[in-house]
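User: Can you help me understand a structure? I only have the sequence.
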Amino acid sequence: MAAVALAGPAFLLLFALVLLPCAAVFVIALTDWQLGARTLHFVGLDNFVELLSDPVFRRSFRNTLVFAGGVVPATLGAGLLVALLIEAGNSARAVYRAIHFLPFMATLAAMAVVWEALLHPTIGLVNQAFQALGLPTANWLRDEDTALAALAVISVWQNLGLAMVLFLAGLKAIPPDLYDAADIDGADEPIDRFATVTLPMLGPVGLFVLVIVALRVIETFDTVRILTEGGPAHASELLLHTLYVESFDFLRTGYGAAMAVVFLVIVTALTLLQAQLLDRRMHYQ
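Assistant: Let's start by predicting it. Here is the structure, written out as tokens:
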């Protein structure tokens, strides 16, 4: 009884805030309900079948994969590089950490407005700098060839601070004795120390950062909604934005719920990946 009393409140909150909403989404995905309508009809798997033939959804899903495939490795690589550079320095470490972590803490809606000004095709600082260097310019947010890439750069900039902080924590946890042992074994060059000690010991942290950053990237919505609204011609359409448009702009709540189920499956798969690899296969010992 004591165990039930102690676990009961947590289970009730979990049921009310997580399990019940997820169940409601699954039920709504099997109907044709429109937001605000008082009636609905059971349509089975029709919404999921329509998803497979919907060119906008397929473009959105493909864009999300391409977007994540570019942003996640770039964020991990840049975050690790910045963490190594900060850790290698002897002064102003706190200042550098704060500078790189500020984009993660900033309100993305406000930062998106700043990026819109920076990427303006005529008066934006990015194009002006490119012109001064003799590089080609573009209408970054209105060109089908550059819109998704521009959003990817913004996403890397935003998530870099999170990856950096987590990698710094991992670097701090590496026992100094391992570096001493590596020196004795002849691994006295920085690249040798990185390959034989630092990188292997960052394995668990690296996997954790990979999953966390991947989840954040897949959940990208603010920048798409504010800067491009999925355009031009759905070139920057991402899954979460498509879900929002179908559910709240077109009021096709049942169809949007089917997209939410797909999104939930992706998030669950990444979470299970973290649990399987991080908890069972990755260890410091």
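Now, to help you interpret it: The CA atoms of residues 128 and 134 lie 10 Å apart. The chain is about 75% helix and 0% strand. Let me know which part you'd like to focus on.
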